[in-house]
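ingest -> validate -> predict -> emit
validate: passed (alphabet ok, no gaps, 220 aa)
predict: started
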Amino acid sequence: MQNESLIYELKKTTQKIGDQTYEIETLKNLDETIDMICNDLREDPFAEDRCPYFGVLWPAAQGLAIYLSKMGEWLKGKTVIELGCGLALPSMICARLGAKVTATDFHPDVPKFLKLNLANNKIDINYVSMDWRKDRLGTYDFVIASDVLYENKHPRDVAESFAAHCHKESTILLADPGRSYLQTFADEMKKLQFRSDMFVREVPVDGEMREIFIFSFQKI
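emit:
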């Protein structure tokens, strides 16, 4: 299908997370969409920034969603911010578990997808357009993100944004598929006086199980 408010071809997928089912509108084909939007960067130097990588349910987001779903009552009444939310499945998990959620991203089409998916699942969360390099939105009980370390400048920027949104008792949860900047990010968090624990969750991808690394950080 093609939604009239979006220029993308979409498809609806069903995700079973814990004992809950979620219907998520995603891009029908990421590669074809990128070719359509980003095929000639010479004419528009900003086209690459508009490439909709957010429009796919990446394995790290699924891994984080699975991890959060097992937290149950612990999230009820807590404040949560998701950085670089994309399709915001982890945010929706938290909201269904009773958390007060703020989802954030920088791509201008994220709120359009989010509106569709919140309506599909009868979930209400707050959305704020945010550049994590400079914007600060206060402190939260949980700061969460998935697969946000894909450029060499991201480890420090993400670490500083995480820290800025934490109070003394906050927990940071980061899901990552094992990208090359993960250790650099962990080092940046250590410099900011955060200790960490690491867990592994397996996510089915194309018929195979893929390991996703979940890091939990708390202020020392």
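The chain is about 30% helix and 35% strand.
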